[in-house]
Amino acid sequence: MNNQPQDIGDQVPEQDDILETSVISSSIAAVQQYGWFIVVGILCVLYYRKSIQAKWQDMKRKRDEDIYAKKYDAGTAQSRQEAMEAARRRMQEEHAGAAAAWQSQQAEKEMVKRQEKIEDWEKHTQGLGYRSKIKKNDEKASPSQPPPKSTKSKPLRNNDYSPLAGAAGPACQITFGRRGGGSRGGGG
Predict the structure, then answer these.
(1) Considering the entire predicted model, what is its pTM?
(2) Signal peptide span per the entry (predicted)?
(3) Largest Cα span, the chain
(4) How many Å apart are CA 24 and CA 30, to the nearest integer?
(5) Cβ neighbours of residue 121 closer than 8 Å, sequence gap 6 or more
(6) Where are the alpha helices (DSSP H) in 4-162?
(7) pLDDT in tens, 58-101
(8) Which distant-in-sequence residues (6+ apart) come within 8 Å of 120 by Cβ?
(9) SS3 of 172, please?
(10) How distant, in Å, are the alpha carbons of 100, 113, 167 from that of 103?
């Protein structure tokens, strides 16, 4: 009786170890024998992945559109089409109204300009001058006085500023060499 194992669980780990080693050894043998084919296959899959995904997405989109088209009947599609047409018509009317308002504003501006030109010409023929240099807003304030000058602004930099001297102290200053030393020749 001592020859038989007391627990069946004792035999299972040995079988699992044998199974694991056989799977590992067979996969290593396959890689050794077909390694280059596997590498080339993986590279091909990676290279053509984008085009395959695009085709897959197109097929999926077409299938979804077909399901969507079958799901809704012709009456629903007709009512949706009519609603879209009504919305387009409404938007077109709004745009046409805005364009008409803009056109009337432009016509009014042109009329005002034309009136100003007529007034300027009448002033010119009366000897009052042709086209005043003073603008309409300035005439209301003070037609005889020039506009007041603005207050004196703060200078942008100090008077003793030199861009070649730098601002970080004497270590950053640029020094120029002598011009035209006579002992070396050349130079002016």
Answers:
(1) 0.31
(2) none
(3) 142
(4) 10
(5) 130
(6) 11-71, 74-126, 136-141
(7) 999 999 988 887 777 778 878 889 999 999 999 999 999 999 99
(8) 130, 131, 132
(9) helix
(10) 5, 15, 59
CA–CA separation, 176 vs 150, rounded Å? 42
- Measured distance CA(88)–CA(94) in Å, rounded: 10
Find, among 76, 100, 81, the residue nearest to 89 by Cα: 81
DSSP for 69-80 reads HHHS-HHHHHHH
Q: Which two tokens stand for residue 100?
A: 């008409």
* Chain centre to alpha carbon of residue 118: 50
- Which two structure tokens, joined as six digits, stand for 26? 């067979």
Which amino acid is present at 181?
Answer: G
Question: pLDDT tens-digit profile of 8-26?
Answer: 555 555 777 888 888 899 9
Residue 97 structure tokens: 């109204």
